[in-house]
Specification:
Blueprint lengths: L11 H22 L4 E6 L3 H16 L3 E2 L8 E6 L4 H20 L4 E6 L5 H10 L5 E3 L7 H11 L3 E2 L4 H5 L15 E5 L1 E2 L10 H5 L3 E2 L2 H13 L4 E5 L18 H9 L6 E5 L8 H9 L6 E3 L7 H6 L6 H14 L4 E8 L6 H14 L3 E6 L16 H24 L5 E10 L2 E9 L4 E5 L8 E10 L2 E6 L1
Parallel strand pairs: 1-2, 1-3, 3-4, 4-5, 5-6, 7-10, 10-11, 12-13, 13-14, 17-19
Antiparallel strand pairs: 8-9, 15-16, 15-18, 16-17, 18-19
Helix pairs in contact: 1-5, 9-10, 10-12, 13-14
Bound molecules: 5'-deoxyadenosine and iron/sulfur cluster.
Length: 477
């Protein structure tokens, strides 16, 4: 197997110089043809990826591209991939496969593949040999190299299927990338990158590298600017936000609770939320800050993964159910209105029927408002992928039982909202019915109501009239 090239370091000045070269090249084209070259960004996966895609689009726009919503007319296609489960990788590869036809009609088309999938060597090899029209790859830790690899592709027709450098995977925190935000009132703000936890099922630490934090002053500035620009709902992002500040990077002597408390001082009518917290270090200090805050919403996403202590240990989660329940109890004591959500993996290797029943029992007594449940998917390179697997039929059967239990609980919890008036940030017309508007509560529950265009991006008060397991329906007061 050929040795893969590793990207050499790139400082901010050099990055800006590459951006300028691409911009001049694109400006020349626009003058000559009366249209700008176009970029299309396709996104798979989590909020971190959505945030990264906004940076990719922002950089491309600053380099003179027009951002378009269909790949057919694009001169540059960027595919931002996910690797959390096999299904996500298959979908990305299938889309990349379809781009072959677009490339066949346009030999100048540049296709970049970024995101978690390309940080795995076997996937890079696959792209290199089976997708020869893919021009370059960029892992999440080397996104700031985008202008350079793009310029090399343009100028030297160079193909870059590269591994990230050790430096980028462990310490680099690139600031200052332009961001093209999809929304004018909801925004993502990354506070840290990477993960050090190595849960035995999870690919993230291998593909996103070590934990490193942004400086508090950079985050405060970004959030302040967003609030001043009219953003109403800001989500702080990190694989494990509770490790913020305690790890490599340029953050100082402060932790996540300090950061949240500092951000909460920013005046205005806005909501602050964050994800994801790891139950092993979701601190009482953070819960106290939330309970006393002005802007921080009472919503907590606390992935439990399993309700059984042996399974949690095999998952390398570093907490047991006693600790988990204790955190939830403290949270509900300090914030009785807290909306609690969680992640569950069904069919982890070795999970017995009795151990799975512990998860169902935990759901029954903790009673989450919403659950993101996943069928375990073996990830190459992680320990659990090598262990004896639960048969697919058993996994599917348990998954269906889990959904039954959770749907009933979610329906019961939502039903309790009937008659209450809730504050909703309006998103606009709902899919499929222009007369029905949708929005989200502070707890991030979806609400449907009869609305009008002037409400979009604003807070409205809605009295809840009926509910479903996944939504509330009501009338604007
Ligand atoms: N299989 C299934 N689900 C997974 N998750 C992470 N890795 C896997 C995997 N290999 C789930 C976890 C995590 C969420 C983002 O994805 O529940 O919290
Ligand atoms: Fe994956 Fe665990 Fe890190 Fe979450 S904390 S990203 S599940 S390794």
């Amino acid at each position: 197997m050929a040795k893969l090239q590793v990207l050499p370091p790139l400082d901010t000045e050099a990055r800006l110089a590459y951006m300028e070269r691409v911009r001049v090249w694109n400006d020349g084209y626009a003058t000559e043809h009366g249209r700008r070259r176009a970029v299309y960004v396709e996104t798979f996966g989590c909020q971190q990826n959505e945030a990264d895609s906004e940076k990719i689009a922002g950089m491309a726009q600053a380099m003179g591209y027009e951002v378009v919503s269909a790949p057919e007319s694009a001169d540059l296609i960027m595919v931002n991939t996910c690797a959390i489960r096999e299904h996500a990788e298959k979908r990305a590869l299938s889309i990349i496969g379809q781009y072959k036809h677009i490339r066949a009609k346009n030999s100048e088309l540049i296709i970049g593949v970024c995101g978690c999938m390309v940080s795995q060597e076997h996937r890079r090899e696959e792209l290199k040999h089976r997708y020869p029209y893919v021009t370059f790859t960029l892992g999440t830790s080397s996104l700031h190299h985008f202008p350079r690899v793009l310029w090399d592709a343009i100028e030297q027709k160079r193909r870059f299927i590269t591994a990230e450098s050790e430096e980028d995977m462990t310490v680099t925190v690139a600031e200052g990338a332009p961001v093209r935000r999809e929304s004018s009132y909801r925004a993502w703000v990354s506070v840290m990158y990477g993960c050090n936890n190595f849960c035995s099922y999870c690919i993230v630490p291998y593909v996103r590298g070590r934990e490193r934090s942004r400086r508090m002053e950079d985050i405060v500035r970004e959030v302040r600017e967003l609030v001043e620009a009219g953003y109403r709902d800001i989500t702080l992002l990190g694989q494990n936000v509770n490790s913020y500040g305690k790890v490599k990077g340029s953050a100082g002597e402060y932790d996540f609770a300090d950061l949240v408390a500092e951000l909460d001082k920013i005046p205005g009518d806005w909501w602050l939320r964050f994800m994801t917290s790891h139950p092993k270090d979701a601190s009482r200090k953070l819960i106290d800050v939330m309970a006393n805050a002005t802007h921080v919403v009472h919503q907590f996403h606390l992935p439990m993964q399993s309700g059984n202590d042996r399974v949690l240990k095999a998952m390398n989660r570093h907490y047991d159910m006693a600790k988990y329940r204790d955190t939830v109890a403290y949270m509900r004591e300090k914030m009785p209105d807290v909306v609690l959500t969680s992640d569950i993996i069904v069919g982890f290797p070795g999970e017995s029927e009795e151990e799975f029943a512990d998860t169902l029992r935990a759901l029954e007594d903790i009673r989450f408002d919403m659950l993101y449940s996943f069928i375990y998917s073996p990830r190459k390179g992680t320990p659990a992928a090598e262990w004896e697997q639960v048969p697919d039929a058993t996994k599917s059967e348990r998954f269906a039982r889990l959904l039954d239990v959770q749907n009933r609980i979610a329906a019961e919890r939502n039903a309790a909202a009937v008659g209450q008036t809730v504050r909703v940030l309006c998103d606009g017309e709902s899919k499929g019915d222009a007369a029905v508007y949708s929005g989200r509560t502070a707890g991030n529950k979806i609400v449907f109501f009869a609305g009008e265009p002037s409400m979009v991006g604003r807070f409205v008060d809605v009295t809840v009239e009926r509910t479903e397991p996944f939504a509330l329906w009501g009338r604007v007061v």
